[in-house]
Design goal:
By secondary structure, the protein is mainly alpha-helical. The protein folds into 2 domains: 1-50; 53-144, no CATH class. It is built from 5 helices and 2 strands; from the N terminus they run ααβαβαα. It has a two-stranded antiparallel sheet with strand order 1-2. It is elongated.
């Protein structure tokens, strides 16, 4: 059973997936910082200082200074501002991933074209068994 587990772990797909998850977790911190520290302040300036994170509706009908005050009062709230932030975060992450995949595909396509050009330029060498059979054929033709 240990051998099977070792073979399973050693497969490229499992290792690639693990690397992807680790890189994704590290990348999340970068994107969250970009959204929270760079993009949301700009959106706040464009919307006259509106901070989406503090937008909410208190379900008890009263008004509160901010979301923290409502939560401290034990009131149920619909935090639609946090949802808006999450949507903006998703759109940005999706766009960045799209750009990364597009770049990787471009590099991959260029490498494949280069490899194909090398294969087309180089004369195809027949497999060893075909060469051997051709030699045998030529010897038989000479002796006949």
């Amino acid at each position: 059973m240990f051998k099977e587990f070792k073979a399973f772990i050693a497969r490229g797909n499992v290792i690639d997936m693990a690397v992807g998850i680790i890189m994704g977790a590290a990348f999340t911190a970068i994107v969250n910082s970009m959204v929270g520290d760079l993009i949301m302040p700009v959106i706040g300036v464009l919307t006259s200082g509106v901070d989406f994170a503090d937008k909410f509706v208190a379900l008890d009908g009263n008004s509160y200074v901010n979301l923290k005050a409502a939560k401290d009062a034990g009131v149920s709230v619909v935090s639609y501002g946090i949802f808006i932030n999450a949507v903006i975060n998703f759109v940005i992450i999706s766009f960045v991933v799209f750009m990364l995949v597009k770049g990787v595909n471009k590099i991959k396509d260029a490498a494949e074209k280069e490899e194909k050009a090398k294969q087309d330029a180089a004369p195809a060498t027949p497999p060893a068994d075909v060469v051997l059979l051709s030699e045998i054929r030529d010897i038989l033709k000479k002796s006949a």
